[in-house]
Amino acid sequence: MKTKGINHVALVCRDMKETVQFYTEVLKMPLFKTVQLPDGGQHFFFDCGGGNSVAFFWWKDAPPAAPGIASVRKFPFDAKTAHGSMNHLAFHMEEDELEAALERLEEAGVEHTHMVFNHDDSPSGYAKEMHEGVFVRSVYFSDPDGILLEFAATTKKFGPEDVAHEPATAETREDA
């Protein structure tokens, strides 16, 4: 089996019109396909660049949002979500575009981190200043449904030394 990347990620929104406005006007992702579902729901697709897309379902009887279970409650301080949930969606962006992205989010009144996070291997997981150990730089923000989104710029090429931790098991959980 050989995949070529992610075709699309499908999320669920509360208000399709609001979602279309946010993704097309604020994030400038063209809406390229709409589907009216037999059960009265909708499924819309947005071009997020690089041949990839993000899609949304809407159903009039969908369950309400569940922050802290199915979505992040408040990044970075309460970012844990349940097994099988989607924690966040990261869009690739060139590093020199991150500051402009912060300005665009600010102008649009979108809640965001107000800074570029420099992710590194330090105990906190990020540094205030850029340095040679930073492997990705990120801006975090939420869409109208509270879905945590990220603009991410990879800053280094990864090698075998970057795979250095033993995977945790279910038995290592506190509630196991």
Automatic annotation (TrEMBL):
Positions of the VOC domain: 5-154
Signal peptide start and end residues: none
Pfam families: Glyoxalase
Stored PROSITE patterns: VOC
Protein name according to UniProt: Glyoxalase
InterPro entries: Glyas_Bleomycin-R_OHBP_Dase, Glyas_Fos-R_dOase_dom, GlyoxalaseI/FosfomycinResist, VOC_core
Organism: Erythrobacter litoralis
